[in-house]
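Risk mitigation, structural track. In case the binding assays with zinc ion fail to produce interpretable data, a predicted complex structure has been prepared as a fallback.
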Amino acid sequence: MPTSPVTRERIEQEVRQALAATLRKDAATIDLDKPIVKALGATSIDFLDINFRLESTFGVQLATQLLLDLVEEELGEGVAIDRDGRITEPAAELLRMYLGEQPGLKAGLDADEVPSFVTPMVLVKSVGGILDHLPEACGACSSTDGWKTDDGCKVVCASCGAAATYPDGDELSKSWIHQVQAEKGLFPVS
Ligand SMILES: [Zn+2]
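Fallback model:
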């Protein structure tokens, strides 16, 4: 896959800006490794706003479904969340890979609490993961001359200037789930 012309630093900067604008905070004081809900007091409505800002800035579609819902959709009902709405051991392990090691992120956690573990760095990785999936050829003119960015965020075809098209966040999450399952066999196979 072609390398994205968008830098990691720029993604971090834009995540800070999106959080700062939505939550009325100073971008410079935001710790990328601290959970957004606890450190910055974000609500679920705020997350919609933050995601929308990032999607507009980078021309991407972030995942709309919760990771554990996607796991159950792909690998079977009950494998990630038990009857009492608590996360299973394999789900906890998957979440630690996705969200980083954090206190309290373990089996038995109420599934509704999972979004409160999202850090700015998780958003950086989500955006970056999508931007890393640039197609080989432009969908508009079929050129393989490569990609460029004029504003540092939106990627366009170097030949015709059409916007790059990316897989959406849900699609990428699903393929990541299958990849982890193939490598580690975390979840029971029914
Ligand atoms: Zn083109």
